[in-house]
Amino acid sequence: MEYRDKVLILTPVKDAEEFLETYFQSLYQLTYPHSLISIGLLESDSIDSTYIELEKRLPELRKRFRSAGLWKRDFGFHIPPDTPRWAGHIQIERRSILARSRNHLLFHALDDEDWVLWLDVDVIEYPPDIIERLLATGKDIVQPNCVKQYGGISFDLNAWRDKGKYHLHDLRGEGDIVELHAVGGTMLLVKADVHRDGLIFPPFLYGRKNPLIRGNNYFHAKREVIKTAIRNLLDGISKISISQLAEVKRDLMTVIKGGCTGEIETEGLGMMAYDMGYECWGMPNLEIRHRD
Predict the structure, then answer these.
(1) In 10 A of CB 63, how many CB atoms?
(2) pTM here?
(3) Is the pLDDT of residue 28 over 80?
(4) Do 226 and 113 belong together in one domain?
(5) 191 and 49 in one domain?
(6) Which of 128, 132, 204, 216 pairs with 77 at a CA distance of 20 to 30 A?
């Protein structure tokens, strides 16, 4: 079969040095014509040698693929020590940064490609014909099922339906292609024109009136932010100037008025796609593997 569609693979990275060898070997094994594949990478806030190692690989990438680009954008965010990355109270800030990094990379890298394939650097195994299989669905937004062990539960729980009630591992019995309401970003294929039409990764809670959102899903995260703001406010009564105190009060009111409803980053993208008239789809029986 002759393929003509150009595919842009985008990967935001941070402290990813240990995963780079596996990441690039998997790219090199893709069976989709390399002359139609472009690679875009954005490095942010790493404390290891990720950016230097990526720079070293650019010449080889440009030989093997249609094009390759590397950008750097630091956001100044680091997960606090002894805090797991899934801790609830950091999720809004953490995923806001993830969304911003994805958007920066998209706006830098997208040129004349027909499709964008989002791929996380720590996805360690997927079929060499994964692009062909995703394209064959004919869907504008579609993803495989990312797991840690084949046949196990989904790793990427940001992909769900019915307000988070069902994930891809729950939907295996429905067939090879199922409707989703929110998507994950471990691997996600999006038609490039849908991005050009305005579909982004919201870096804020998006879709307050969208019927698909999970209600006050971020209540506990917002509660921690509010508690911190109140502590700062009380502390500031005696330690900061009147103008600074007023600024702290404004920040607090912004947090409170913002509410706890909506979805962010990849899940926010699912809500935005719905608002734009697009549907999201998943392939529960097409599995890719994430690192343990």
Answers:
(1) 9
(2) 0.86
(3) yes
(4) no
(5) yes
(6) 216
Residues 145 and 286 sit within 8 Å (Cβ to Cβ): yes
Q: Are strands 37-43 and 7-13 parallel, antiparallel or unpaired?
A: parallel
Q: Are residues 242 and 116 in the same domain?
A: no
The two beta strands, 7-13 and 115-119, are: parallel
241 and 172 together in one domain: no
Which residues span the domain enclosing 282? 7-201+264-290
The residue whose two tokens read 């805090």 is 83
User: pLDDT at position 269, please?
Assistant: 98
* Structure token pair of residue 274: 């719905």
